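Complex record, three chains
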Amino acid sequence: MIRLENVSFSYANLGPTVRDLSFHIRKGEFVAILGANGAGKTTTMKLIDGLIRPTSGKVTVNGADTRETPVSQRARQVGFLFQNPDRQICRNTVREEILFGLQTVRGEEGEEALKQRVDAVLEDFHFTGDEEPFSLSRGQRQRVALASILAVEPEVLILDEPTTGLDYLECCHIMDRIRRMNEEKMVTILMVCHDMEVVLDYARRALVMAGGELLGDGDVRTLFRDTALMERASILPPQMIALGTRLGIAEADTPETMAEAILSRRGGGSA
Amino acid sequence: MREIFQYVPGTSLIHRLNPMTKLLLTLLICVAAFLTGNLFVLLGLLLVNLLIGFCAGIARRTLGVFKGLMKIAVFLFLLQVLLTRKGTPVFWIITDEGLYTSAAVVLRLIVVCMPLTLMLAVTRVSDLANAMVQVAHIPYKYAFTITTALRFIPQFLEEMSDIMEAQTARGVAFDKAKGLKKLGMMLPLCAPLLISSVRNTEHTAVAAEVRGFHLRTARSGFRHYPFHGIDVLTLLAGAALIALSAVI
Amino acid sequence: MISFESLSFTYQGGNVPALKDICLTVPDGGFLGVIGPAGAGKTTLARAVSGIVPHAYRGDFYGSVKVHDMDTVDTPLTDLSRCVGMVFQDVDSQIISTMVEDELLYGLENFGVPHAEIPERLDFALDRVGIPELRERAISSLSGGQRQKVAIASVIALRPRVLVLDEPTGELDPVSSRQIFSLLKSLQRDFGTTVIVVEQKIMLLCEFADSLAVMKDGALAYQGQTREVLTHAEELLDLGVNCPRVTRLSRHLSDRLGKPLPVCVNLEEAEKQARELMA
C-alpha cells in the first residue's frame, strides 16, 4: 500500500533530513514512527502524503508515485491529522467544518449524500454540529479535526502527535476512535507519538528513526525490548517493558500481566 | 519567502557598522532615489545597493530580492508605458517619454525597496531597537513596537504556509491553483489567522511585561553602539549620494 | 512561601469561575506539580502565582495570594516579576526577540543585572537547558522543541526565587522533557528555587515533584505529597488523570496479595518492590 524505496530528502541549503529510507506498509497495519525530536519522523510522514517530494528515491501510495499526483487529489485516500488542529479548522461551526472537508474531496456525491455523511459523523463523535470550534477545548478541537478527516473515509490515516496537549481522557477518546477505524474498516494507520505508553497500547509495528535514518523496523514489543536500539534512538521504553528488562521478565507488558509474572516467580518460582 | 526579513549572521564590514549608520544610510539612499529623475543616477544607486549586498557576503539574498522586485517592476513598467500618452510615439502607442519616465519609476521603486530588506539582513532587529533607544533616544515603547512588527512578519508567513499545507492535505487544491485564484482561496483563511495573531500579540505583551518591559531604559542594553571612523565615512558617502542625485 | 487563601477568580466576561475557593501553600524550595483535565483551571492557577491574574487578565478576584509576603493584588506586576519567573504554555507568543541570545538578554537587561555578570548568566542558562550551540541562531529557524528550550532558558537566566511553568514540555520528546525536569530539580536543590509546574505527563511529576495538586472544574480535588495523592488512583482516573503504570502495578500486587504495599512512583522503586517479592 505504502512503499518507500531508498528515499532521501533534504531541504534547500541544509543537510539531508532523511537518508535512504526503505520500507513497505501493508493495508490495515497500525504503525508508529519513533524517535527523538529532529529524527526525521515528521519529514517521513510528509513524504508519504507528498507534501514534500523526495530528493532521491521513490514513494508510492497504492502504486501511484507521489511525484506524479498532486497532494490535494490524494486527500480522498490519505487523511493527515496535524499536531495543531487550528491549522486545519477554518469554518465557524463543527457541521460546516466537516462538510467543507467532504465537499472538497467528495463533492460529486451530491448535497444529500454528503449531508447524511456529516450527520453520521456528528452522531458518532457526539457533536450537535452547532458548536463553534474555536470556543471548544484543545482536545475537542482535535476531535473536530479528526471527525472531519474520518468523514471522508480515507484508506490511510497519518497522525502527527495526535495526543499532544490533551489530557488523559481526551487522549483515550481520540486513540480509541482511531483504533476502531483500524480494526473495523481496515484503515492503515501511521502515527508519530511521543507517549510510549500510547504506542505500546495501540500500535503493532514500529519504525525507529534517529538522525534521519531508519534504525529498526518490526514488532513494537520486540523493538522496545532492544535496549541497545532504544539507547541509540534516545527512546525511553514504556515503564512495564523497562521494568521487565530489569527483572528479566519478557512475557509481560501491562501492570496486570506484570503482577501475575512477579507473583508466579515468588520464592524462586515455587509459589 | 519566509527568510526575506531574516538576519544573516556575518562579520563583514557592513555587519559591523553601527545599526544607526545602517538605518541612516538606508534612508539616505531612499531620499536620493526620490530626489533624482535621472536614469543613470538611479542605475548608479541600484549598483550601490548590489555592491553593498555583495560586500556584506549576502550576494544570494541580494539577487533574490532583486529578482523578486524585477517581477513587480516589469508589470508596472508595461502598465505605465501603455498608459503614458505624452511625448513622441516610437512604436504603436508607446512614446519616448513614456519609456523614459516608466523606467525611472520602476527603477526608483527597486532602489527604495532594496536597502530596507538588505539592512534587515545585516542587522539584528534587537540591535536596531537598542541603538534607536541608546543613540537616538527614541522611547523604548516605539522601538518595541517596531521590533514586534518585524518579528511578526516571518511568524505570520510561517503560520500561513503551515495552514496551506494542512488545507492541501485535506484536499483544497492549493497545489494546483495559481495567481489570483490561489489568492482567492487564501483570503478566507486569513481571517482566523489574523484573529489568532492579534490574540498572540496580547500574550506577547504580557510575556514582555513579566520580564521587566516597564523597567527598560536607555541604559539597560548590554551591547553598546559607539560610532567609529568607518561609520562617519559611510554617512559621508551617503550624503555624497544625496548631493550627486540633487545636482544631476 | 506561596499561599492561596480561599482564592476564587472569574475572568472578565466569563460566566463560570475559573478558580473556586483554592486553599494551597507551597513551602520555600518546594516542587509542586499541577495536573488535571482540560479546562480545570491549571493555567489560571499558574497565572495567579505570577500576578498576571489579576494584573494583566482582569476579573472578579476573591481571597488572596501571597508570594514571599507580597500580596499579589497590592504589589505591582513588575515587582512580583523580579521574584517569580513564568514560562508560558504558548511557545511562540512569549518570545520577544528574533535571535536566541537577544531573547535571553531581554529580561537580564530589563531587571538591571550588572553587565559584568551577564555573560556568565547567559552561559549558565544555555548550558543548563542544553542549547549552547543555538546561541547565535535566529529563532525563526528553530524547531518547536528548540524554541521551547529557549523560552525556558530566558527565564532560568533571571534566577527567579519562584519558577512557574505552564506545560513546559508540550513540544519536547520524552528524553528532552526529562532533561527539563532534571534541570528544575537541580535548580530546586542548588538554589532553593520554588518550582510550580503545570504538566500532563504524570510520570514526570511522580518522579520529580514533591507534592501534587489535582484540579477539576476550577477546584482542588486532591493535594498533598505525591505518593499520598497517588493512593487515590481510582478516583484520579474518574477525574481524567492517569497514574503511572508502576503505581498501577503496585496496586495490582497488593490486591492480589491481599495486603497493603507501599505505592511506587518510579521504576527504581518498582524494581526494588518486585525483587523483594520475588526473593
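Note: The domain at 2-220 of chain A is CATH 3.40.50.300 (Rossmann fold).
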